[in-house]
């Protein structure tokens, strides 16, 4: 049997396996298979030796132990160029294994919070062993490789060094991905705190994107948690579209009632919440119609035909909704340049990661809106409607780029200024945007994502008729700012919670 090549098959995913097995058997490979794979090949009329014939033992512990045996791993790891390896293998009565065709159990999770029984042990061990010894044993870690491997055997009579290296590299990548995905299946606890020393990122590409931030940049969307929380119904997304979709989902997660948001360049330019969904959409769009042109619009309610009518003559880059009425979809499909995304609402990540300085910054997601009740420090006791507007404005400003300023009234934003080095400049922009949109700022409320270093923004709010301000506080000039608000008759609420977003 010294010149006969042996292929060990142990595959959870049987896609294309029967055809591949026939093709490599046709090239002289003797087939060996474990448990379920052996039964599958037999059903397909394909001869294979069961691994128990090699190990001398039937499956142990109800099938948990099939391939974890020196008769298997010595055959995989024996270096054909090392005479001592081959002599020892022969003395032990073990066979060399020239190819390992393996993929792993699906990660469906355990039966309870502390159940890790779903983890595949033997599969990753064999894949790693074959990759380690790729010069002697060919690892075939996924059905996507079957055609290349079979074609190489049929045309060249063997597997070349370059292809072996690529197969080994992919086997190591897939075992690493499996480990990372396994860790993601484990319920979160203190061990998932961003302060841990090591973080495993197992990312799978879900889609190629039209381009990155600019058309000359290639881009893709990867996820480490199975399928992403959205599905593309129409069109191809770009890198920027995904960022704006994410902004929509994070903003909408703040609301329990019907809410809509218009996002442009990773920041809201209109937010509204009210009992009637289409009305919320109209009010969010009305905040800044100029910026809304070509924006991404998200809502946490069903996109109805009435919504489609409202947007009929407006250019929208992308729409995000939990579901769509059939009649609305029919109308939207006629808008050639509008992409449609169906998304699960309400879920937010545990951590936020971003690349920086050649590494990755990791922080806990900003899931807190308020860590305490609003603390009113000027202007007397407010009425409930005013408190509602302040809380709404605080939800909106939380998702603007710092320094963020939002003016709001009756559950809708009417002016947004963000992303400026100076907070007072953001205030001026928010006021200008409100006026350009035809909004009356009299009686509105203003929210600031960070404290006021000076009273100038509060003075501007008073000049345009705002009646209340919400901000985190924490400036060394807090007393001065509060006193100025009191003098101006402005109700001021402190949150003691900051929401910077860079």
Q: What distinguishing features does this structure have?
A:
single chain; 502 residues; 21 strands; 35% helix; alpha/beta; 17 helices; elongated
Structure description:
The protein is α/β, with parallel strands linked by helices and 502 residues long. The protein has 3 domains: 6-185, Methylglyoxal synthase-like domain (Rossmann fold); 204-343, Cytidine Deaminase, domain 2 (3-Layer(aba) Sandwich), CATH 3.40.140.20; 375-494, 3-Layer(aba) Sandwich (Cytidine Deaminase, domain 2), CATH 3.40.140.20. Helix content is 35%, strand content 20%. The protein has helices at 17-25, 35-43, 51-55, 70-77, 83-92, 122-132, 146-156, 161-185, 239-252, 277-287, 289-292, 305-310, 326-332, 384-397, 423-436, 456-463, 478-487; strands at residues 6-11, 30-33, 49-50, 99-103, 138-140, 204-208, 220-223, 230-234, 259-263, 268-273, 295-299, 316-321, 339-343, 351-356, 359-364, 375-378, 405-409, 412-417, 445-448, 468-471, 491-494. The protein has a 6-stranded mixed sheet, sandwiched between helices. A 6-stranded mixed sheet has the order 16-21-20-19-17-18, with helices on both faces. The protein has a 5-stranded parallel sheet with strand order 3-2-1-4-5, with helices on both faces. Strand 19, helix 16 and strand 20 (468-471) form a beta-alpha-beta unit. Helix 1 packs parallel to helix 7. 40% of the residues are buried. The model has no long low-confidence stretch (mean pLDDT 91).
């Amino acid at each position: 049997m010294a010149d006969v090549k042996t292929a060990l098959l142990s595959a959870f995913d049987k896609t294309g396996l029967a055809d591949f097995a026939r093709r490599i058997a046709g090239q002289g490979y003797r087939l060996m298979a474990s448990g379920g794979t052996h039964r599958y090949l037999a059903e397909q009329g394909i001869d294979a030796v069961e691994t128990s014939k090699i190990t001398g033992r039937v499956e142990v512990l109800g099938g948990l132990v099939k391939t974890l045996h020196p008769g298997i791993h010595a055959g995989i790891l024996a270096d054909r160029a090392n005479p001592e390896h081959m002599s020892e293998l022969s003395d032990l009565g073990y066979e060399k294994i020239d190819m390992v065709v393996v993929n792993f159990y699906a990660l469906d999770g355990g039966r309870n919070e502390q159940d890790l029984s779903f983890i595949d042990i033997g599969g990753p061990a064999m894949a790693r062993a074959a990759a380690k010894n790729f010069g002697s044993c060919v690892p075939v870690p996924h059905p996507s490789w079957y055609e290349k491997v079979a074609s190489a055997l049929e045309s060249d009579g063997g597997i070349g060094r370059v292809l072996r290296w690529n197969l080994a590299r992919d086997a190591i990548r897939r075992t690493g991905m499996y480990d990372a995905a396994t860790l993601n299946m484990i319920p979160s606890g203190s061990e998932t705190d961003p302060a841990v020393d090591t973080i495993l990122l197992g990312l799978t590409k879900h889609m190629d994107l039209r381009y990155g931030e600019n058309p000359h940049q290639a881009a893709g969307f990867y996820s480490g948690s199975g399928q992403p929380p959205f599905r593309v119904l129409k069109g191809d997304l770009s890198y920027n579209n995904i960022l704006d979709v994410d902004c929509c989902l994070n903003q909408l997660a703040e609301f329990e009632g019907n809410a809509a948001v218009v996002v442009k360049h990773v920041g809201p330019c209109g937010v509204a919440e009210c009992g009637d969904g289409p009305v919320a959409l109209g009010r969010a769009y009305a905040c800044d119609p100029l910026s809304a042109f070509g924006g991404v619009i998200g809502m946490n309610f069903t996109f109805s035909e009435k919504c489609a009518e409202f947007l009929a003559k407006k250019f929208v880059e992308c729409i995000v909704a939990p579901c769509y009425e059939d009649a609305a979809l029919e109308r939207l499909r006629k808008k050639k340049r509008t992409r449609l995304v169906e998304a699960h609402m309400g879920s937010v990540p545990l951590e936020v990661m971003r690349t920086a300085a050649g590494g990755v910054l990791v922080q806990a997601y900003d899931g807190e809106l308020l860590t305490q009740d609003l603390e009113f420090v000027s202007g007397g006791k407010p009425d409930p409607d005013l408190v509602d507007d302040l809380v709404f404005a605080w939800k909106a400003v939380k998702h603007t780029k710092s320094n963020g300023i939002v003016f709001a009234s009756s559950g809708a934003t009417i002016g947004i200024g963000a992303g400026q080095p100076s907070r007072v400049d953001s205030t001026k922009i928010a006021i200008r945007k409100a006026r350009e949109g035809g909004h009356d700022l009299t009686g509105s409320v203003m929210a600031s994502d960070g404290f006021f270093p000076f009273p100038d923004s509060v003075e501007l709010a008073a000049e345009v008729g705002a009646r209340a301000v919400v901000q985190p506080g924490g400036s060394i000039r807090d007393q001065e700012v509060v006193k100025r608000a009191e003098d101006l008759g402005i109700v001021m609420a402190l949150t003691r919670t900051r929401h910077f977003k860079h």
